[in-house]
Amino acid sequence: MISSFRAELLKLRKRPAVWVLLLVLVVLVSVMGYFLSYLFYLTMAAGKVSSDVPPSHYLDQLLPSGLARTPVAFVTYGDYAIGVVLGALVAGSEYEWGTLKTVLTQRPRRASMYLAKLLAVVVVVAGMVVVVFAFGAVCSLVITYLAGPGTSTHAVSWPGLGSVLKGMGAEWLILSMWASMGLMFAVLFRSPGLGIGLGIGEWVVEQVVTQQGAKLSHIVGVVSPFLPGVNYASLSVATSQNVVSFVQGVVTQSPGSIDAARAAMTVGAYTLAFVVVAGLVLRARDVL
Questions:
Q1: pLDDT value for 257
Q2: Which residues pair with 244 in a beta bridge?
Q3: Most buried residue, 74, 158, 271, 283, by most Cβ within 10 Å?
């Protein structure tokens, strides 16, 4: 399995799509997150925009002290798509290329090949999370410098390592769930395109159902707390609590409907379920 794992990592490292996904996350956290938020803070400080949120709070979250929470908030609106695309590419590309049968006839068993793909996804997702938080740290230092020595929050104050690891773990868990969903759909339908489309489509449908369906049916309101998207959003909000998002103005994130511990367990359970279903289908079904 070690050889298969190395081969999967090599394929992912040489795929431009993986680097594009990483670039999208970096743009979300740095440009769309930190620097647009800082520009909006300057607009608020100049009195051109009024808000219930004081400018000082908006600045504080952009400084190093907010590193454990802020990057998670800034990638919330894109990490579901990044995860789904990554998982679908890893599992579905062999079907599209017609190389799955060739790989299996060389040596590795299906279980070994599948575990190698899963481990490769785990490593790549972990690397993406590290890069996101590293860019968040760099952006926070730049903003600290731009804020100037006259700012009361100018002193560099980093959060505890445990808090940062907690935020990184939450983001890793979120990306892993969406990657496992994309992987499962790609295996079920033997296509990376369908894996991507169905994975993102599930999230879109779930948003409509949870926002509008609860008004029409009591059953929807009962089922909603168990859906993957609801738990993903609750975990993200709980991790990035009190962070203000830059979305057409200042929008304070509302508290999640589910507490962080329960949301994390549900997200983990969905990840395991998606992985198991894909593995069982891959093992039992003909590869053609």
A1: 62
A2: 252
A3: 74
Number of domains in the chain: 1
CB neighbours of 163 closer than 8 A, spacing ≥ 6? 68
pLDDT in tens, 65-112: 888 888 888 888 788 899 999 999 998 888 887 777 777 777 778 888
Integer angstrom CA distances of residue 225 from 67, 260, 267: 28, 13, 12
What does the block give as tokens for 117?
């793909």
Tokens of 91: 């599992």
Cα distance between residue 262 and residue 134, in whole Å: 28
Cα angle value 180/186/192 (rounded, 5°): 115
How far is residue 55's CA from residue 226's CA, in Å, rounded to a whole number? 37
**SS3 assignment, position 251:** strand
pLDDT at 155 over 90: no
- Calculate the CA 132 to chain-centre distance: 10
**Domain limits for position 53:** 2-284
